[in-house]
Write a structure and sequence with these properties.
There is one protein chain. This protein is of the alpha/beta class. The protein is 51% helix and 18% strand.
Length: 326
């Protein structure tokens, strides 16, 4: 009987010791979970949205992408695409949607320079903390870091951003109706306009304008209806076609590209005034312009240090990494 009692006492002691260790592990895990902190960088433009999630030290954990995120042209659609890109990034990182509440984000979005839209988007997203920037600002940070320099971002839209002696300024980025010179949306609009001028017999046609008229069944009303409701990206889909035909020597394509190059160079000549600064051309069309630019600009162009998402993460690290550790 004594042996049995001793055995039971030893067994109970082991159970209590194991339970104690389990409780220690449980509280440690709970504390670690409560201190989890993630950084999210988001780059959203007229053609797509990209999101990266990192730990508090900036180590990349997951990536996601979704549709357009221009908050001026489609606010609700932009919000949904931002959330979808983040959910993809969280899933790749092995996290669920609860990670939103443990995440601090920096977003660089087309339309982020319009205060009302930016404020509404910050309130509409489920992050713990959130800072809105323009897509230009995160592109600048990604391309040249904290250095002085000029970055031209030319895609569906266009904006020029530059830092001189630490002060950041922008040129353009006002939307393709009144700005965004050299952008895909402006190029596409010019092409549709030219196709109508050819249809009316005012301008001579070319292989490019014939291609466009065929696409719209030679019906000008169809072109007008398309243009009336088209978003910037729907104009921008024609821009690769313009450069493709320009390489073949198409006169219409060359005229459209020459005008766009003139607009881009006029801006660069005005803001790129110190030759010791970096100059980067970004965006889907940025590199397409390189061969058309004047020698003094082309020779000054350098490769970007990183992407726009890298810039968003760098800003998030600056703003939130230390705060997130508490």
């Amino acid at each position: 009987m004594n042996n049995l009692n001793n055995y039971n006492n030893i067994r109970l002691k082991n159970i209590f010791e194991n339970f104690a260790w389990l409780m220690v592990l449980y509280w440690y895990y709970r504390e670690m979970k409560s201190n989890e902190h993630y950084l999210v960088g988001i780059d959203g433009g007229g053609t797509g949205c990209r999101a990266v999630v990192c730990d508090s030290e900036g180590h990349r954990l997951g990536f996601g992408k979704a549709g357009p995120a221009n908050i001026m042209t489609n606010f609700e659609g932009a919000r949904d695409n931002i959330v979808e890109a983040c959910c993809q990034a969280f899933r790749e990182a092995g996290l669920d949607s609860a990670a939103f509440a443990a995440s601090d984000a920096v977003l660089g979005l087309a339309g982020g320079n319009i205060a009302d839209y930016a404020d509404r988007m910050v309130k509409a997203l489920p992050f713990r903390r959130c800072r809105m920037e323009t897509d230009a600002q995160i592109s600048l940070q990604g391309a040249i870091g904290d250095s002085d320099g000029v970055v031209a971002i030319i895609g569906t839209g266009s904006v020029f951003i530059y830092r001189t002696d630490g002060e950041v300024r922008t040129a353009g980025g006002w939307g393709f109706m009144v700005g965004d010179l050299g952008s895909g949306a402006r190029l596409g609009r010019s092409l549709l306009q030219e196709a109508l001028l050819v249809y009316d017999g005012i301008h001579e046609g070319s292989e490019l304008t014939m291609h466009v008229l065929n696409r719209f069944q030679h019906d000008p009303q169809t072109i007008v209806e398309y243009a009336h409701s088209a978003l910037p990206g729907e104009f921008g889909v024609f821009s690769p076609l313009i450069f493709e035909f320009a390489e073949k020597g198409d006169p219409t394509a060359n005229a459209i590209v020459r005008e766009a190059v003139s607009d881009v160079e006029e801006t660069l000549n005005a803001i790129y005034t110190r030759k010791d600064q970096k100059l980067c051309l970004l965006g889907g069309l940025g590199t397409k312009y390189v061969d058309y630019l004047s020698d003094h600009i082309r020779q000054a162009i350098s490769e970007p240090e990183g992407t726009a998402v890298d810039g968003a993460i760098a800003l998030a690290m600056h703003d939130y990494s230390k705060a997130g550790a508490h």
